[in-house]
Design brief:
two-stranded antiparallel ribbon, mainly alpha, about 10% strand, globular, binds zinc ion
Length: about 260
């Protein structure tokens, strides 16, 4: 089924690219802007589900309640604040020292224990969950894959990989730019990161968490340095830009819980 899904996706992509069709621009209400989007939402969700299965088969899920209970407590609050139904989402804590977290289309996200070790409270975890949920709701994955298709890079890679019978899960992971260790790294753009920060802080504030904890968390991340994992430290917004924007957003938020 996964293979068929990917082939369908490639066919759609090939049709779009080869016919040089002018890309459809869709308005995203959450962002308040148009998005370049070649891939239908259902196809992105299938791609995300395939990548998620692949990652789950490779990473070790934490069963430590100090991590899992915290995420199980925070995630539903953020999701509801974002207008989502928690039952329609799946999340995991992965046991790894990586300072990382990621989200995939089709309502999946994960946080690594290494990143959670840096967090002092639930509000700082809410910062990260809000940011990841925002990437999904903003369809940043779809926009990024569409941008790649525009240059045929992902398309050619997919065709070659499917032609040689490679694992579809890895291809999906690569196409979504999930992580460097899977071979292909397509970081979110600076614009996407700043959008995810902005929406994430709105969600956490609405969920009743102190948005000033976002400021503390990102400040701490900026001094964590060292490793440069794909989602957080290697992304484009300079720490100073990110922190300045967070200050501005906090100043415009409604009272907490609203
Ligand atoms: Zn991000």
């Amino acid at each position: 089924m996964a293979g068929r899904t990917l082939k369908t996706w490639v066919r759609i992509a090939a049709g779009a690219a080869l016919a040089a069709v002018v890309a459809a621009c869709a308005y995203n209400e959450e962002l308040g802007r148009d998005q370049f989007s070649l891939i239908p939402g259902e196809q992105m969700a299938s791609l995300g589900a395939t990548a998620w299965s692949d990652v789950k088969s490779k990473e070790r899920a934490s069963t430590d309640p100090r991590y899992v209970s915290r995420l199980d407590r925070v995630a539903p609050k953020i999701l509801r604040a974002a207008g989502e139904y928690p039952a329609q989402w799946e999340w995991r804590v992965f046991d790894s020292k990586d300072l990382n977290a990621f989200a995939l289309p089709g309502n999946h996200f994960a946080v690594y224990t290494g990143l959670m070790d840096l967090m002092e409270n639930d509000a700082q975890l809410a910062t990260v969950v809000g940011h990841e949920v925002a990437h999904v709701r903003a369809n940043h994955g779809g926009e990024r894959v569409s941008q790649q298709l525009g240059t045929n890079v992902v398309l050619q890679g997919l065709q070659a990989a499917i032609g040689s019978g490679s694992q579809t899960g890895q291809i999906a992971v690569g196409a979504l730019g999930l992580a460097g260790q899977y071979g292909v790294l397509l970081p979110f753009s600076r614009k996407h990161e700043l959008e995810a920060d902005r929406l994430g802080i709105v969600y956490m504030n609405r969920a009743g968490y102190d948005p000033n904890e976002a400021l503390k968390f990102w400040t701490k991340m900026s001094s964590a340095g060292g490793q440069k994992p794909p989602e957080f430290l290697s992304t484009h917004p300079s720490d100073a830009t990110r922190i300045a924007q967070i200050r501005e957003i906090i100043a415009t938020l409604p009272p907490r819980g609203q």
